[in-house]
Amino acid sequence: QVQLVESGGGLVQAGGSLRLSCAASGRIISSYTMGWFRQAPGKEREFVAAISWSGSSTRYADSVKGRFTISRDNAKNTVYLQMNSLKPEDTAVYYCAVRIGNDYKYWGQGTQVTVSS
Questions:
Q1: DSSP tag of 52
Q2: Non-local CB neighbours of 115 within 8 Å, separated by 6+ positions
Q3: Where are the alpha helices (DSSP H) in the chain?
Q4: Over 80: is that where the pLDDT of 14 sits?
Q5: Which residues pair with 39 in a beta bridge?
Q6: DSSP bridge partners of 73
Q7: Distance CA 6, CA 21 (A)
Q8: Whole-angstrom Cα distance, residue 117 to residue 98?
């Protein structure tokens, strides 16, 4: 079992930055791919970014490429999402998740990010 707790969300003006953190407990996540997802009001949850267990491989949604950076610190069992040049359309609840096998099986409770224009 894995418990994930996201933090770092908040209200920011367009063009600003936020850094989200996802702290894991209950199981060491260093062997697993980690991902960030988001869900805006009235929309389905969508993929944002993922990082391999070693951190050597990352993948991003086209909508955030060049603005967001995913990273991890396995010693701290934590994954981060640095978000720069934020846009109002980035407003959503952001979730982190652990991929085990082919599925993201464990999810955090989410952190709200609101970008004002």
A1: -
A2: 11, 12, 13, 14, 16, 86, 87, 88, 89, 90, 91
A3: none
A4: yes
A5: 93
A6: 78
A7: 6
A8: 32
- 């988001």: which residue's tokens? 38
Q: Which residue spans within 1-117 are E strands per DSSP?
A: 3-7, 10-13, 18-25, 33-39, 46-51, 58-60, 68-73, 78-83, 92-100, 103-107, 111-116
Q: Which two tokens stand for residue 19?
A: 């850094």
Q: Do you know the residue count of the chain?
A: 117
Tokens 């367009």 correspond to what residue? 14
CA distance 16 to 22: 20
Residue 97's closest CA among 1, 25, 9, 4? Answer: 4
pLDDT of residue 73: 95
Decide if 107 contacts 5 (C-beta within 8 A): no
Of 25-34, 81-90, 103-112, the one with minimum mean pLDDT is 25-34
Encoded tokens for 89? 């359309």
Q: Tell me, what DSSP letter sits at residue 45?
A: -
DSSP state of 102: T
